[in-house]
Automatic annotation (TrEMBL):
GO terms, molecular function: phosphate transmembrane transporter activity
Name of this chain's protein: Phosphate transporter
UniProt keyword list: Membrane, Phosphate transport, Transmembrane, Transmembrane helix, Transport
PANTHER family referenced in this protein's UniProt entry, alphabetically: PHOSPHATE TRANSPORTER (PTHR11101)
Family: Belongs to the inorganic phosphate transporter (PiT) (TC 2.A.20) family.
The keyword Transcription is annotated on this UniProt entry: no
Transmembrane segments: 6-26, 86-106, 118-137, 149-171, 183-202, 218-237, 388-407, 473-501
Lipid bilayer topology: Multi-pass membrane protein
A GO cellular-component term linked to this record: membrane
Coiled-coil stretches noted in the UniProt entry, renumbered to this chain: none
Classification via InterPro entries: Phos_transporter (IPR001204)
Location (main, coarse): membrane
GO biological process terms, semicolon-separated: phosphate ion transmembrane transport
Amino acid sequence: MLPHQYTHIFVLGTIFAFCDAFGIGANDVANSFATSVSSGTLSLKQACLIAVFTEFLGALLLGSNTAETIRGGIVKLEYFNGRPDLLMLGMMTSIAGSAAWVIFATSQGWPISSTHSITGAVLGMGVAAFGKDAVTWKWPGVARIVTSWFTSPVIAAVVASILFLTTKYTVLRSENSFRRGLIAIPFYFFLAFFVNLLFIITNGTPGKGGGKLPFGKVAWISALASLGIAIYSYVFYSKWLERKILNNENLRWYHIPVIPFLGHRPMPEVVAGDVENQKAQEEGDLEIAEQGSAKKSIFKKAKDKLFHGVNKDVRNLNNEKLTDIHDRAEKYDDETERLFNFIQVLSACTASFAHGSNDVANAVGPYASIFEIWNNAEIPGAKSPVPIWVLAFGGFGIDCGLVLYGYHIMRALGNNITYTTPSRGFCAELGTSLTVVGASKLGLPVSTTHCITGAMAGVGLCNGDIHAVNWKMYAYCFFSWIMTLPAAGLLSGLFFALIAYSPEKVHV
């Protein structure tokens, strides 16, 4: 094989890698933002806007380690010695099989694991190429990944439960829960920023020169930076929340840096006549909009069709089948829950960052091998660095899938596992981010689907009632996880066999 030979495989691999990343964004969007949207903290449109940045940055800054594990930790690369073209073909069919299954499952509203999908696809390709001996079944191959499937939801459930029980007994059940919540917010700021800064600095930027500082020094730097943010949040942010929620002042987000110097800002009085005039104006605007809808330009119609998913109602609050489960959840002070509305935005960002860092590997790990073989005509090592542009490409694909198609899984999971409030969603998201970012640093491709599902079940059990969790939905999720591995493996294996073992051309 020569460099830049089999360009058609590289081109097809690029297309399938984008499709796989698109499916990952569409399916796993629920893992990062389902709790935020279902609790009412964020609208679906706001969640997508935030995730466009956090998913991309997570993929770019922390996506390299898990990409290396996916690419070289499942199939024994020595079986492909002397046949880089065959490995190139195998990785292409793996991405194709994974993409086909993830997108199909998303269209059906099945919350599957994209980590399961790519693992099964690469495994199926390896078996189709050289038999079962070509797959690394024992540790640190498939066994480590399979172990993470069972340990990650348990760990996330324990971490989220500890966070929520601490919040429940120190803040939510207190007679003066709002005041205690104001004091607790800086601590949560410290925890969230410390964990993420620790892993970002320790991991370093992808490529040469990253991650050279000793861990102890990194911990001190992260702790001091997070302490500064916590102090800032106590002096400025907590005071802003107190005045906005408790005193009902007319404040905007840009007032936070100057809140100690800002005088009292009462909400403007609303006159009954003004309300009627506003209502009439809105009705008139609606009538005008309806009349003008027929005159929309082709561009406007295409835009509305393309982004119709971000306007979907995905909260499931009026679902009669979930009424009993929601009624079993303990309710807390509305003002205190409103307090967690703001802090949950931060936890949603950390969870999304963690998701981007971990799940980008599922698309770009095999694709990085395709690119390197096409470019160098050599089989890359299991620990070869993943190019930054490949990580950025995967992050962009995840963002597209999230915005354009993610509402399917959001609707399937919104308040379906347990009743979600801002305080519960915050603890579940922070517990998930702690679990997934930690796994990303260790190079362990855990499933964010497992983590957030386990975290929500753990928080639901903190109600003290086993029936406060929708175990049917949980079993449904688990069944879809089990189906993913063989389905993606079968598709990938069939694609590979169809191409690699097709009849040779007969020359007459």
